[in-house]
Amino acid sequence: MRFASVVLDIPTRALDAAFDYAVPDEVRAQAEGDGVGCSGGLIGCTVLVPFSHRQVVGYVVATFDEAPAGIDPARILPIARILASSAFDEPSARVARWIAREYSCPLCEAIRPFLAPGQTVKVRRADDSSPWELVCEKSGPVDERWVSLTESAADFEPRANASKQRAVLGALSQGTVRMAELSAMLPGCSATVAALQKRGVVSVERRRHVRGGEGTTLSSATASRPEHLTKGQVGALEAVAAACAAARGDVVVVDGVTGSGKTEVYLEAIERVRKSGKSALVLVPEISLTAQTVGRFRSRFGDDVAILHSRLSAGERFDQWDLARRGEAHVVVGARSALFAPLRDLGLVIIDEEHEASYKQDSAPRYHAREVAARIARERGCALVLGSATPSLESLERCRAKSWGGVSWTRACMPERPGSARLPKVRVVDMTEQFALGRKHMFSKPLADALQGVAERREKAVLLLNRRGFANFLMCRECGAVPECPHCSTSLTYHERTHTLVCHSCDRSWAIGTPGAPMRCPVCGSPYLGAYGIGTQQVETTLADELAGKGVTIVRMDADTTRGKGEHQRRLEEFDAAECAVLVGTQMIAKGLDFPQVTLVGVINADTTLKMPDFRAAERTYDLLEQVAGRAGRGERPGEVIIQTYWASHPAIQAVAAHDRDLFMSSELEERRDGNYPPYSRLANVLCWGRNESEVRRVLDGVASTLRARIEGRRGWEVLGPADCLKSRVKDRFRRHILVKAPVGEELGALLDACVREQDKPRGVNVAVDVDAYDMM
Ligand SMILES: Nc1ncnc2c1ncn2[C@@H]1O[C@H](COP(=O)(O)OP(=O)(O)OP(=O)(O)O)[C@@H](O)[C@H]1O
Ligand SMILES: [Zn+2]
């Protein structure tokens, strides 16, 4: 290990390569002596290196003994020092390289997700004349050592002059104290504690502080082992075992209907992997990382589980991450970014609800967790399990082809719920018919009746308000104006309770009138300003009227009511504890929740998402409806689902009504094939934004013409645009984009990267390449 290849943390596309440095003896000794590092050496370390007359932070991605060919070893500059222990090993470095190429981003940006949370080091200077300085956003490990007296403390008498010992014993006489607090009370006491520990008078215990699993009253937050696995579960486990045995990154799509017991398959599969001494990684959507999910894993694997998600503080995230790095936890359950956790000896990766759009990161590196997971599985020779009741069309297509990317893709079906639970009966209510019958209420007659039934039978219901799309804005009935944010091209959303108009692009808000006073149109001054679309608050109010005096608890869950820490869980607990209740909410209540007492699911407006300008609109609507329908009838009592819609004939809605995915698939796949959309092509979005509109236009026109010249004559390639984005202005920046379609299997990222690099970009104009884009607004 005399030389190292270092990627500099300078995210410009031109400085993307790794540079070679010499490894001085003391640096090597430090790296090899470091017990906590991931690679057992220098790879994965954050280092300080000289570069072009200054010092720069970089990451070691490879080491070698011979000087690189053609370079005089004496002229290779040395690494100045190590700034942080190794956070990744060689296979991870290879995955990072792949991410950079695949998603067209600078290599250092692809490496950053692998670094220890909260331990990023930067070289900065205040202005051009001041010196460079190291800024270390360190959140070291949280001290979780707890000190307490042992039984033999009673017989221990400190010597007369041992005042420090007396102080420590005194402080501990009331009970266990955290080491950090003890040090704060008695500065410099750690040597004393160590001495007392040696004598057996005090004990120091490392208690893991792990949030998320503890302190919930949710009945479903434990996973008791079922007596028998279902046939579907046994089959799925066999497929997973085969993929583990193949040890080359094979993929199993666990295609199990809602409530079929996919979680039990994950738990069982992890148990087997653990028995063979390997570790496992489980990804769930951020929003499902609730006490319920965490509790289920914790109840089976206890302290062997580390939890990673964005609601943890930086220190807590570091702690959890470090448990994996030190090999103290062998199961990591987390949101998208947990994919980069430094687990040793990985044997299995699981992605739950794999169809979820939130697995695509919408800032650089713009990776899709499913694709990176597949890459990691191949790199480490472990199995990948993708679970969902509504697998993505991409995954289903790969299973149909049986292999993809050099590994096998298998589908394991679980068509039934365990025990006596059955899939609920679904009824579609055509709202145009209701209107023709003279019913203008938010709840159709069948839904209103069903809610009364729930109240009478003392059961529970879930009501979904489909809020994606353009619901809930105000429109002037005289001039037709819709108030928009002056900084973004976004219709403002009306919030009834606070009487404000809110921009969901930039979070600015405007008060309108005073409660009770009429609101006026900002354009023509007319008082006839009406709310279009409905909000959850309105549903809650209407519901309260409908069920007044019936003793039904109404719990509302949306972005507003779950903002505070722990609110999400608190509301679910409230719903769980109530004797008879209705849970009203947005998308966030649609998936994962397992409450056996729910017998009715109502969807107030099924079709708002169908009208979104997005080729995945139908798929998303189908997924959402099938998932939310799946909340009903998970226990012994049968469930019923009522879907209100103005578009009853749409295949997505028909398919949910019949629990027949093929109904939806056949029409959808045909449209995708006709339009050359994924899964039959790859799609990238090249986005350009800046304050100066003409510069934005010029830059993107340049990218488009370079691109068109390059793909000239190549089959299956298509360049659409440039055109204004649907959100053509956000935070006063103009936004235009190009959509690029390419045949499946083409390296789209590398080509787009080259075209963007070629373009001269003035300051203030930004270009982002989003490969396999999900959000094209
Ligand atoms: N073999 C079994 N026998 C009896 N009950 C089981 C069995 N397997 C799972 N269950 C129970 O079935 C319920 C549903 O399981 P789970 O929540 O894992 O479903 P799921 O497939 O993840 O559904 P969804 O996609 O809706 O989230 C749970 O309460 C679970 O304890
Ligand atoms: Zn705005």
TrEMBL record:
Zn(2+) 2 binds at C485, C488, C503, C506. Zn(2+) 1 binds at C476, C479, C521, C524. Keywords: ATP-binding, DNA replication, DNA-binding, Helicase, Hydrolase, Isomerase, Metal-binding, Nucleotide-binding, Primosome, Zinc. Pfam families: DEAD, Helicase_C, PriA_3primeBD, PriA_C, Zn_ribbon_PriA. It catalyses: ATP + H2O = ADP + phosphate + H(+); Couples ATP hydrolysis with the unwinding of duplex DNA by translocating in the 3'-5' direction. GO terms for molecular function: helicase activity. The keyword ATP-binding applies. It is an enzyme of class 5 (isomerase). Its EC number is 5.6.2.4. Residues 243-397 form the Helicase ATP-binding domain. Residues 516-687 form the Helicase C-terminal domain. It comes from the Bacteria. PANTHER family: PRIMOSOMAL PROTEIN N. Initiates the restart of stalled replication forks, which reloads the replicative helicase on sites other than the origin of replication. Recognizes and binds to abandoned replication forks and remodels them to uncover a helicase loading site. Promotes assembly of the primosome at these replication forks. Component of the replication restart primosome. This is Replication restart protein PriA. It comes from Parafannyhessea umbonata.
